Structures are given as structure tokens and as C-alpha cells.
Amino acid sequence: MGLSVSVQREYLGAAAGQLPPDQCLPELWIEHNDDHSRALRLLGALQRPPQRQWHCRCGEFVEGGFEQCWNCGAPMPGL
Predict the structure, then answer these.
(1) pTM for this structure?
(2) From residue 37, how far is each of 33, 44, 49, 51, 67 by CA, in Å?
(3) Cys-Cys crosslink for 71: which of 16, 54, 60, 66, Cβ 3.0 to 4.6 Å?
(4) Which domain of life is it from (predicted)?
């Protein structure tokens, strides 16, 4: 089940420079207060995405968001 939200300041980015930048960022407003703790959990999950880990054919272990081996330059398998 999703959350009911509204987007505030969605188009205010064009005013950056005329207004302080931190006042031009979009915001999601939760429509039901009962959803607050669930929304915080979802936000936390988005802020900490799982890191990929894979072994390159050259034997190197590659971590993080890298899609190419730092050692030999080979692409991540499956790309």
C-alpha cells in the first residue's frame, strides 16, 4: 500500500538565485499523520541503498556503485 502525499514547491527550482536555494527544494507532505513513521522508514531505505559487490574475471573484488573493474577495466557481468 502506498502513501498519500502531495508535492510542494515542485516548480520553485526556477527561482533559485532569486530566493535562497534551500527554500527552492521540493518537499513531500504526508497527507495522514499516521503514516509518518512508515514514511521515515522508506526515506531511510532510499538514503542507504544496498551496495553492489561483484568479482571480476581478473579476480578483483569490486564494491560500491562501480560498473567497471578498477583493476582491468572489464564491465560488470550482466551489463
Answers:
(1) 0.52
(2) 9, 11, 19, 25, 34
(3) 60
(4) Bacteria
